[in-house]
Amino acid sequence: MVTVTTGMLVVFALVVVTMFLFVTETAPPDVTAIGVIVALVVLEPWTQVDLQTGLSGFSNAATITILAMYALSEGVRQTGAIRTLGNAISQFAHGSESRLLAAVVGLTGPIAGVVNNTPVVAVFIPMVAELADQMRVSPSKLLIPLSYASMLGGTLTLIGTATNLVASEAYAAATGNPPFSMFVFTPLGIVVFLVGAVYLLTVAPRLLPERIEPGNRTASYGVQPFLARVLVPSRSPLVGNPARDVADDAHRDLNIDILDVLRGDTHFIASETDRDIDGRDMLTVRGDPEKIQQFCQLADLRYLPRAAVTDFELDQPDRVALVELVVPRESGLVGDTIGETRLRERYDATVLAVRRRGGDLIREHFRDVELHAGDSLLLQTTQETAQYLGETDDFIVTSEIAEEVMEQNGALSTTALRAFAIVAAVIGLAALGAVPIAIAALGGVVAMVATDCLSPSDAYDAVSWNVIFLLAGVIPLGRALQLTGGVALIADLVGQATAFLPVIAVLAAFYLLTGLLANVITPVASVVLVVPIAIDTAQQLGADPFGFAIAVTFAGSTAFMTPIGYQTNLMVYGPGGYRFTDYLRVGGPLQMLLTVVTTLGIVLFWGPLTG
After folding, report:
1. For residue 348, which phi and psi values (nearest 5 degrees)?
2. What distance in Å separates the CA atoms of residue 586 and residue 569, rounded to the nearest whole number?
3. Do the beta carbons of residue 580 and residue 569 sit within 8 Å?
4. For the whole model, what pTM was predicted?
5. Which residue, 225, 314, 374, 519, could crosslink 322 as a Cys pair with Cβ 3.0–4.6 Å?
6. N-term to C-term CA, the chain
7. How many CB atoms lie under 10 A from the CB of residue 569?
8. Helix 85-93 to helix 97-112 angle, to the nearest 10 degrees?
9. Contact, 449 vs 456, CB < 8 A?
10. Is the dihedral of CA 418, 424, 430, 435 positive or negative?
C-alpha cells in the first residue's frame, strides 16, 4: 500500500483546481496552464518540480512537433489543395444528401490523418455549407459528422492529432521504451474510422435535427422581422445627404443600421460610400420594427411591407457579402464586446445577429454583447472585408466561399504538389526512423518556407499558441504526479477496486474515463494525466502497458459528447445551429460503440493483455 504524503496532497489539490478552472473557463486554459507552472515551481519542496522540470513542457518533443505540424498544415491549406476537393465533392454528390455526407466523411477522415484537423475543418465548413445550400439540405445534418470524421481520422497516424504525440512522449517517459512509431496506430485506426464512418452515415442522420433552414441564413438567425426595405421619396429630407452620414445618424439616434442603398440594379453599403441619397433610392434597414417605423416618420420615408429582405438581397457577389463568422477559442476578441471590436467603424461590417453557444439568438443592442468562444455572428460587409476577416485569427468564416473554388477542375497547382511532397517526406523520414519526428517536422517547416509554400510570418501565425502553452503547463503537472508518488497511489487504488474484474474490463474503463475527461478538460490534458496512471495500473495487474497506453490515446480522440471538448466541435456549433444536447445525443452512442471496438481491437492486433 502506497503511503499518502503531503507532497501528494499538494499536487492532487493543484490537479483539482486546474480541472475546475478548465471546466468553468474562469480563466483561459492556456493562462491556467501557465499558472500551474508557477505554482509547481514555487511549491517545489512539496511538488518536487524544480525550474528545469517546470519549464520542460516547452522543450518537450511533442510540443515542438505539434508546433511544427500547425505550420505544415497551414502550408498545405494556403496552397488551396484542400479547397480543390469542393468540385470533386459536388460532382460525386449529384444532389444526393446521402452521397454528400459520404463524401464529407470519406474525405475529411483520411486528410485529418496527416494534416491537422482544425484547418481541415475550417476549410470544409464553408464548402459543405455552400453545397448544402445548393442541394437544399440543412447544414445541421452535415457539420457534426464533419467534425467527428476529422477526429476519427486523427487516429490513423501518430501525427493525426496533438493528443497522439503527447501520449507517445508520456508513454516513453513512463516506461523507458521508445515513443510510438508513425504508423503504430494505423491498423486499429482504420477499423475505428470505418466503424465510426458507418455510424455517421447510418445512425447519425436519424439523430441529428435540422436546426438550420437550408439556403436562408437570415431566416435561420430569425432576423427577417428586424429587416425592412424603405423607399426614399423625392420630398424626403434625406435626399442630397451623404449616405454615410445618414447611416451614422440613424445608428446613433435610433440604434438602427442602414445596411445598403439600392439604386436601380446597383447596391452599395451605406456606411462606406460618399454618394448622396437620391429620390427613389431604396434603403435596407435593420433594427427594432418600432424604431424602423419611427425612422420612416421622421425622415418621411415609405415603408415597403411586401419587400422581404432575404439572403439574395443582402449577398451580391459583385459588391456586398452576407458573412457568417465563428469566434474560435484562441481569438483575441473573446471577452470583448461587439462595440469594442469596432467592426462597424473599422470594417464597414454591420452585425445582424449573434447566435450563442447554447442556441440563444441576439438580434439587437449588439454594442454591449460580450463575445464568447463558439459564438456565431451574421453580418453584412464588403467582399474585400469578408476576405480579410477570413485571413485573421480572430474569426473563422463559415459561410463564404469564393466562386472560383466551386469552378476549379480539381487540378492541383505546382505549389500544392510541393506542399504535399514536403509533408510526405516528413512522414517518410519519421516512419523510417531516419530522424526524430520533431526534427523531421521542423525540417518540413524550413522546406515549406524555402519553397514559397509558406511565409515565415504565416508559419508563426498558424500556430495555436494557446495549445502550446496548455501543453507546457499540463506536462510538468503530470510529471509532478509521478515524482510525488501520486500516480502510484492512484494506480494502487484502481488496482484494488478492479481486482475482481478481468483485465479487458479495466482497459475499457480507462478508455471511458479518458473519453469523459476529454469532453470537459480537453483531450491533451486528459491524456497527460491518465497515461501514467494507466501504465502503472497495467504493471500492477501484470498487463501490457502498451495496450493501456493505446486505449488512452484513442480515447483522447473521442470527445464527441460536448462542443467544448474538441476545437472542431466548437467550430461547427454555431454554423450548425446546434444545442449542447445534440452532441450528447449523437456522440454518446458513438463513444460507447468505440469503447467496445477499440478495446477488442487492441486485443486483436496486439495479442492478449497478459502473458
Report:
1. 50, 40
2. 12
3. no
4. 0.81
5. 314
6. 24
7. 27
8. 150
9. yes
10. negative
Q: For residue range 105-124, what is the model confidence (pLDDT) as tens digits?
A: 998 999 888 888 887 887 78
String of DSSP letters for 5-52: -HHHHHHHHHHHHHHHHHHHTSS-HHHHHHHHHHHHHHTHHHH---HH
Under 8 Å between Cβ of 118 and 161: no
DSSP letter, residue 272: G
The answer for residues whose C-beta is within 8 angstroms of residue 4's C-beta and 6 or more apart is: 489
Q: Return d(Cα 452, Cα 275) in angstroms, integer.
A: 42
Decide: 570 and 563 in contact? Cβ < 8 Å: yes
Q: What string of DSSP letters covers 342-364?
A: THHHHH--EEEEEE-TTS-EE-S
Q: Is the pLDDT of residue 71 over 60?
A: yes
Percent of the residues in the chain that have a pLDDT greater than 90, as a whole number: 31
Instruction: Report the 10 Å Cβ neighbour count for 277.
Output: 24
Query: Beta strands 320-326 and 376-382: pairing type?
Result: antiparallel
3-state secondary structure of 525: helix
CB 269 within 8 A of CB 224: no
User: Do residues 57 and 471 make contact, with C-beta atoms less than 8 angstroms apart?
Assistant: yes
Domain residue spans of the chain: 1-80+413-477, 217-411
- Edge-to-edge strands, sheet with 282-286: 266-269, 257-263, 282-286, 227-231, 302-304
| Residue 370, helix vs strand vs coil | strand
Per-residue pLDDT tens digits for 392-401? 778 888 765 4
In this structure, CATH architecture of domain 217-411? 2-Layer Sandwich (3.30)
SS3 320: strand
